[in-house]
Amino acid sequence: MSLFWIVIRQLAEIEEMAVSKKVITREEWEKKLNDVKIRKEDMNKLVMNFLVTEGYVDAAEKFRLESGTEPDIDLATITDRMAVKKAVQCGNVEDAIEKVNDLNPEILDTNPQLFFHLQQQRLIELIRNGKVEEALEFAQEELAPRGEENQSFLEELERTVALLAFEDVSNCPVGELLDVSQRLKTASEVNAAILTSQSHEKDPKLPSLLKMLIWAQNQLDEKAAYPRINDLSTAMLEDPPI
Amino acid sequence: MNSVTNDINTTTTTNSKSGQDLGLYFLERSRLGSAQGPCDMDEDEEAPTELNTINSSGGFLVVSPDKLSVKYTNVNLHGHDVGVVQANKQAPVKRLVYYFEIFVKDAGTKGQIAIGFTSESFKMRRQPGWEANSCGYHGDDGLLYRGQGKGEPFGPTYTSGDIVGGGINYATQEFFFTKNGAVVGKVNKDMKGPLFPTIAVHSQNEEVLVNFGQKPFAFDLKDFEAQERMKQQMTIEKISLPTNVSHGIVRSYLLHYGYEDTLNSFDMASKSTVPPIYIAQENGSCEQEDIMYALSQRKTLRQLIRNGEIDAALSKLGDWYPQIVQDDKSATCFLLHCQKFIELVRAGALEEAVKYGRMQLAKFFELPEFEDLVKDCVALLAYQQPQESLVGYLLEESQREVVADMVNAMILSTNPNLKDSNSCLHSYLERLLRQLTACCLERRSLNDDQGEAFHLKRVLNSGKKAKC
């Protein structure tokens, strides 16, 4: 078969697919939606899971009272976890390390990368506060030995120490280390490690479900035209393009 | 001009009618607990349980009385005297994976055993894979045959003592085969329509036992399924979401159902996170503001109903929203009266319950849409321990929740700024979950019903399995 005919055939197939795409009207689709029964109890669990995982401890407690939904984790542990997270976010890394060890010393023992990132964050905070001498001492005594164990740690350490080489750090190539986002990154790493140590999933389920919705709609687009929800934040059903 | 007037007329009628519809919606929900529960729509599909002795090449093979093993008793002479037997049912399709196994008890003189899948009209004297619309993994050469005369290199050979499995992965549209618990290979499933698990024997004394799941498999099917789901999940997780969208959906859920205390804590905490999250300001859509409507009244009523204080709830409702409880024969009043009756039964005040029932519930007996629930309520009186009876669902916390949700929706529907009466019924979260479920179901039905549906319950339980 010549290339020409292959192309013609493929074009025909594409056209056929486009034609055979099923069109579902709003009315038909709404009927299908009404056949779906979502249990209130399950939605409550989903919301509780979000509050707990994201660390909204007061809201989780209130929600337990208002909706009768039991959290899937001891709420007291959230307070501790959030204290650690907050300490990192505010730059009190030493405090955070102590709190993690109070919670469960195994978390840092079994997670050298996390421990390194916390120490690195500590170094960044020293540099931010202009404590040059202290920073150098800390880098040499605490961080350098760890770098010897692991090449990527060493590179990270060198990158961090480079901060000291610039007078105006706001404009230097490694300046992003001083950004709030670096603290947030470290904080969420600790947060995830604590959740994992409590045999809890580190991410809430709701975002995954929202992603699944986007995916499911994309998949269905290949076979049918139907009312979509394009804006998750308004959950508005939009008519299919015809 | 005319059409405009018409439009206005229709709107007013739907509005007054929609109040009743809202109540009926919750009436239906209140009955959900009585049945088995709405979520398991896949379970009704029949799966193979034994071999089909009618549609088999009788004369060449003997199927045992339990219909779970087969033996070739002839001496084979040519390619048209294969002993083939299908399962009694087609492989179920409304799931992620279908799978069955055989145990080769005796490979006979030549070990010409095959396992595979065939269509209903398959010619029952040929090896699966030798004819069109069939696929088979053969023991004597380890080749895979699928409709062409020639086999293709696939896996190892198998013989006496081996356990061999055949499966269909509906997510990837592939057949796969296993030997002694390990996958040996997979191949595109290019056949459509119902497929039957099929086994074949073709030399003297070959004997094969089949396992349709009545005994544990050598292959870890659960783990295989978990890995398949994980693969799909990995693709899905790569999709990015707008910032804070989950946060906004949770917030609107709290607003919708009137969980005011939770909402206040949530807003307080959101402001103090780093960086702070300002949802309301960012997309202060009108609808968001609409569900602020009557928030503290809705909260109060929910609390009363959840505590079983139905009288107090009714009287508050009468003060604040007389239009909701005006019609004593409405679904709303009916559900509230039922709940009051249920609370009396719960408290053990049976005489009072009887009196209340005669006064408030008896009038609903002749109305078809209310009849079932009235009967269930009254039936509570028949049992010494009603919570363990068939109507015990009425005494569960979820029943109070339905009534509280109904009152909440009725109050939302009195909002003069309301544009869509549907929005009283469903939170954003529920709308999104319904859309997700409907998309998955629709996609499956356009794919010859193949694959598993979406179950919120499974997602909710998924983390817990990892613990054990």
UniProtKB/TrEMBL annotation, chain A:
Protein name, UniProt field: protein GID8 homolog
Species per Swiss-Prot/TrEMBL record: Ziziphus jujuba
Family annotation (InterPro entries): CRA_dom, CTLH/CRA, CTLH_C, LisH, Ubq-SigPath_Reg
Alphabetized PANTHER family for the sequence: RAN BINDING PROTEIN 9-RELATED
Domain CTLH: 77-134
Domain of life: Eukaryota
Automatic annotation (TrEMBL), chain B:
Organism domain of life: Eukaryota
Boundaries of every B30.2/SPRY domain copy: 29-217
Pfam families, A to Z: CTLH, SPRY
Native source organism of the sequence: Ziziphus jujuba
Protein name stated in the entry: Ran-binding protein M homolog isoform X1
Domain CTLH: 294-352
